[in-house]
Amino acid sequence: MINVIILGSGKVAKHLYTAFKVIPEVTIRQCYNRKGILLDDAQAQEDITTDLSQLKNADVYILAISDDSIQPVSEQLPFTNRLVVHVSGGKSIDVIDPKNNRGVFYALQTFSHGKEINFEQVPFCIESDNPVDQKLLSSLAGFLSKKVYPISSHKRSIIHVAAVFVNNFTNHLFSIGHDICQEHHIPFEILHGLIEETALKIKEMPPDKAQTGPALRNDTKTIEKHLNTLSVASQKEFYSTFTKAIQTKYGKEL
Amino acid sequence: MINVIILGSGKVAKHLYTAFKVIPEVTIRQCYNRKGILLDDAQAQEDITTDLSQLKNADVYILAISDDSIQPVSEQLPFTNRLVVHVSGGKSIDVIDPKNNRGVFYALQTFSHGKEINFEQVPFCIESDNPVDQKLLSSLAGFLSKKVYPISSHKRSIIHVAAVFVNNFTNHLFSIGHDICQEHHIPFEILHGLIEETALKIKEMPPDKAQTGPALRNDTKTIEKHLNTLSVASQKEFYSTFTKAIQTKYGKEL
């Protein structure tokens, strides 16, 4: 049995709480957040504390809090030599105060309020100070997911950059597509299937092989027509930048 | 029964051939391409012609050929007053020679060789000169898909621009993610789940609500760290451009 305490009340805290509470081998001993927010509707108020000095004993303390809070909160913890982990993609293991054993428990996924996550296929990047903690974090992640990877802070930060491209920036392209449809009174739903297929395709072929479109074909007439169609300056700029980048990558300079 | 002739031997021609041949209400009477290429391994060579003058009678001639070939090939067709359609997202119905009845049969999807398409959920944008042809194209699309939309050439060209953003440009972001992983010897597969979730999420919430990441949070420390991590100039440029665009859109100017 692994005893867990979750600190934080944001999206990751809530998703981890929901996932752990149905795992027989895991007990969520307590949760902490400053406002005493319940992590789900069924949680008992007495399982939440708003006072770090009231934290119980546990095998692992999960800091599911904002990047900038990891260091100060880890410093304020009123104990030493226990296992304290953060869940951040971009932060080094070193931001946790070294008075405790340190670790990282990073789920490589995008979390939203109100959208359930099936953790089974979510890669967990774990890291720790020592082999005993590594084994514990590996077990803990293994209860949730089939994909557990020991990853150093440096490699994790690289993965995080790549994740920003394929998730955050991709979603911004979706939002541009949404804006274009909205401007012309076209339901965005018409693009849903295309978006899904675009994402699923890269499981079957590398993205370089999946590239299509006017830029790749060097179809200057369509490119010009598209630039004339776009009415928003930032959309035109993205269109030109991507077109140039695709043509440079695949050897067809404008 | 609708008699169809497919002209072309590219991805769309092959995918339409494969899809139509199992539809009882559709007969593929013949195919045409300049080199006599079979559209699948089971096709009989005598069902292909390389000579436009040998084209048989059919209810609809589908020009599944490159955008620039639509006009010249439609001009070379040795008959008049039949229904001739193209499958292009970006081209107007008007590029087809008006000696025949004209139409558009555009499947809003990304096609690749060797990756099967389930057309059932693929939106078909159809357009025609007259109500009789419109009904025929609507039936034909309806045999393949549950989603058939009558769409004007103007609206289709808008959808096509939006599709370039959510498909072509998105795939380029995936390829940047792939390059970053490869440079640092990280398997790209670790990002597959995130990419899938990013795409599926927009079915449950508009992309503006799904936006996350350092740019949205105005997390300048992570943004700076990421820019320092990236070693390729064009990657840095994309990172800065997207970060600025996201911050402008959501009201947090750099």
TrEMBL record, chains A, B:
Transmembrane segments: none annotated. Residues 122-245 form the DUF2520 domain. It comes from the Bacteria. InterPro entries: 6-PGluconate_DH-like_C_sf (IPR008927), DUF2520 (IPR018931), NAD(P)-bd_dom_sf (IPR036291), TM1727-like_C_sf (IPR037108). Gene3D superfamilies: NAD(P)-binding Rossmann-like Domain, ProC-like, C-terminal domain. It holds the Pfam family DUF2520. PANTHER family: CONSERVED HYPOTHETICAL ALANINE AND LEUCINE RICH PROTEIN. This is Rossmann-like and DUF2520 domain-containing protein. It comes from Aquimarina hainanensis. The lineage of its organism: Bacteria, Pseudomonadati, Bacteroidota, Flavobacteriia, Flavobacteriales.
